[in-house]
Fold these 2 entries.
Entry 1:
Amino acid sequence: MKVAANRLDLAYNVHKDEYEKKALEVLRSARYILGNEVSSFENEFAGFLGGGYCIGVGNGLEALRITMQAMDIGEGDEVIIQGNTFVAGFLAVCAVGAKPVICEPRYDHSMDASLLPGLLTERTKAVLLTHLYGLVVPPDEFIDFCRSHGLYLIEDCAQVHGGSYKGIPAGNFGDAACFSFYPTKNLGAFGDAGAVFTHDESLAAKIRKIRNYGSEIMYQNEILGTNSRLDEMQAGLLRVRLKYLNEANAERRKVAEAYDKGIVNPLIIKPVVYPDTVNVWHQYVVRCSRRDELKRYLASKGIETLIHYPVPAHLTPAFSFLGYGKGRFHISEELADTVLSLPSYFGITSDEISYVTEAVNSFGA
Ligand SMILES: *Cc1c(COP(=O)(O)O)cnc(C)c1O
């Protein structure tokens, strides 16, 4: 049997007619930028998150960068970020001229809130909290810390569309939440797309301006903006996708439950989740001290796996200027060396799940 790491065709095929109808509708509307599809998607996604302001942008990285720009985070400022997150957060901080200050994660992949006081300086402006792999991080300690020190709390929600804590959707915990709709995400577009969600009306208005050349009224450029607009085609297709998001998340949850139940190999550490969370399992990530061997073993059985992420940002050439060497953030580094994402996607069959489970269980036997 062959099991792919991911299959995007399956989720598309289930609602193919609707996607194709919408695509034609957008093509024929002759309105391609900032029209009804974008404003409707923004309203619908804000509604999905319980109400607030949603601003569609070009992609997840832009959502992060524009949010920080709108918060006046810049030269001389510091943003606390976890060492095991995707590189986009680091790039966004650097793009506005600020410095990423690395916080170690816990072994469950979430940022370690207990380390925050030790990282605080008079330059700290914000904490960027990532809900990695679709696992919701209980936000209370982060909210308290940010409030008591006058910091912004930004949530990186690129992997957690629809996840919640005590019934409150992720994205509502901080001052702003940044979403990516990269095709593989739980709410995936058919190209690049992203959004910012916030309850702050004036922040929303500023982000809205920045994404569109710093102008609200055409040719009246009030602030230094950029061109990072969600387009009508992606917005229209995302509206279709959003209708089925809960269903798709429920399916990912079933896959995770099946792996949780089936995997019993003592060499494998399964993911742990916090109480009071509804998780959306963007990835099902196990840990194994012999990870590379496990990956090769599964590949030999036709099972594709991925690593999210193989090198922590501080050890990449791009961020060598931060001056951190190997060993400086040992938990981030250990996670990078031991994590493995098992095939988990909409449409994976129970036979495939069983096949992967058996293969994982037979590793090292
Ligand atoms: C995907 C992702 C992003 C970036 O999104 P793009 O749309 O690819 O720019 C940011 N943060 C995290 C955690 C992600 O997974």
Entry 2:
Amino acid sequence: MDAAFLLYQETILPKLQLLIEFTLIYYKELKSKALPLPFFSKEPLNIFVFYTLFLIILFKIVFPLLKWCFSLSFGSVKRSFIRFLTQCIPSVKRKLLESRQKTEKEVFSELSKHDTNQTYKLPKNGMKLSTLNDRMSFWLKRDEVAINTGKISGAKYSNDPDYERNLKEFIKDFFFHNPLHFDIYAGARQMEAELLSMTGILLGCEKDHVYGSTTSGGTESNMMAIYTYRQWGLEVKNITKPEIIVPETAHASFYKAAHFYNVKVITLPTKPRSGTIEISALRRAISKNTVCIVGSVPNYPHGNCDPIEEMAKVALKYNVGLHVDACLGGFLTIFAQENQIKIPKFDFKVPGVTSISIDHHKYGLANKGISSIFYNSKELRHYQYFSTSSWPGGIYATPCAPGSRSGAPIAGAWFAMVYNGYNGYKENAKKIFETTRKFREKIESIKELKVIGDPKICVVAFASNNKNLNIYALHEILLQKGWNLGALNYPACIHITITLANEKSLNDLVKEIQNAIEVIKNDPTKNKVGIMGTIYGTTKKVPDTQTADEFMKVVLDASLKI
Ligand SMILES: *Cc1c(COP(=O)(O)O)cnc(C)c1O
């Protein structure tokens, strides 16, 4: 699987070196031969022709070329250059193709190793219900073994089979309901509106002043926010080249939004001690094109909370939006104050906070496929809407990205909220806060490891504190022990998102970590990394996302294949 990554080092780099060497040799030759240069005599005509030509070249060729070069980012020049090399040198091209085919095969056989009874073509006659039921129970049983280990970071947020069964029972008849037709599906409409009101009030909105919409997940919520600020910036401030400012720890969905909606991302570095940004750097990053700032409570990689109150002051001062990404931990951080957890205030009561996203399908304990996004004014929410009346299909209007939607995720989130109630969520939050604190303290007591920032909510990330301990090697030993944690980059670290589904196994995890460190200490050959470490290590050494992007294309292709 690492073939695609090694290719860069194996084939492209040596070719680059050759190219440079050739250029140097040629340059030396040229110098030693002392070629006579034209227009070197001092005749007036020659001088005139020389300067005219010189000026033409300068203004028509050199300056435009320089301007073009500066308009390109370093990355895009490098990308074009690598594309040029890989397309124009036949041996590189062939090797790249071979390596990609090999990688594709390997990835596909890994991903499809559990596949049984593949159906790649529509069966001529419908399958019997009994066959379908057999398939279903086989898939569910097999996958549940992998899911219900209690050893997975995030991914599964509730841990009560009875609760899940009741929720499924409640939502099953709403699957065919479609809130696009809110006049027909009145139940889904009411549940959606109630869901928004209940959640908005938890986030500091006043009754009747809740301006939100549900979405299919945190990614869509964040994308809708960025789209909304882009439209707001265009209409209110006439910004045609919108920029958003995000801490480097902000979720990938902001880059996705920027990619989809043609917005530029300005990234701010974070400080190791607090795990968050410096406000002075934020101020410096604001430009006339800024449409919004993003902060997270907490962020996905390291679980730290950004200084929302201070960021809000900056947002107010420069009249830009401040989006708070509470997707991951919103249903926990709402209860931080009551549980004496000290984090910055982040809700709509903070002047300057203009939108908040929160995921019901994480700690909101709903089924997958439901999140919501809120704005501080009706006007701002209007920028998210789309409607057309000039379509032959009639009037079409939607608050968020999809057209038709299922009523079931809405019903599930509604059920989750009213079933758990304020106190149910508060109890869950308390449990997660406490488990996080205890786990963090235990990791801090291991001298070979260091915790990143000051995590208090639900994620703890730790890096190696010892040059003889490769954190990815540790990650791999944990994988072999059945622990599916996240391996992260920039900096190299491991993280765990603590949920109701894994909190009981964390003492075991600490023991496994201590054992793994001992194993590596006693046998340095164990400090080597396999594929995961190679991917992270290589992408770090070659600061070229194209190789990684190519690789991910192969992986996505394989995931969509039968
Ligand atoms: C999970 C997450 C998201 C995106 O959520 P999806 O539901 O996976 O689309 C956004 N922000 C943060 C901080 C998250 O943890």
